[in-house]
Amino acid sequence: MQLCYIANMADTASDIFAALAHPTRRQILQDLKDGELAAGEIAARFSATGPTISRHLSVLRQAGLVAERREANRILYSLVGERLALSVGNFLSTVCPEQIVLREVRKRTTSRPSTSTSEA
């Protein structure tokens, strides 16, 4: 059971990093950080054809990095930022264990009330 979970996690990470590999897809994610955009609005920001942008959006959607919803005859896309943050964070924690320690140190220092003591 756990082995299956690890394999699925690896597949998910592979999908996400494959989606992030293309500069157009990274730009789409950056454009969506300010809010939902219609497919036509996204396509208008690029010199690529509509079908090419549609394929990029499909890759992002399959990786779970964007969500889509239909409104009348428009398809609206939004960023699923927490999925990106968690996946990249998990990867970094795996390959850079010191990041875990740094995160814990930051948690402790921000959760403690600051007290200033002066020693003479």
From TrEMBL:
Residues 5-99 form the HTH arsR-type domain. The keyword Secreted does not apply. GO terms for molecular function: DNA binding; DNA-binding transcription factor activity. InterPro entries: ArsR-like_HTH, HTH_ArsR_DNA-bd_dom, HTH_MetalResp_TranReg, WH-like_DNA-bd_sf, WH_DNA-bd_sf. Signal peptide: none annotated. It holds the Pfam family HTH_20. The keyword DNA-binding applies. Keywords: DNA-binding, Transcription, Transcription regulation. NCBIfam families: HTH_metalloreg. This is Transcriptional regulator.
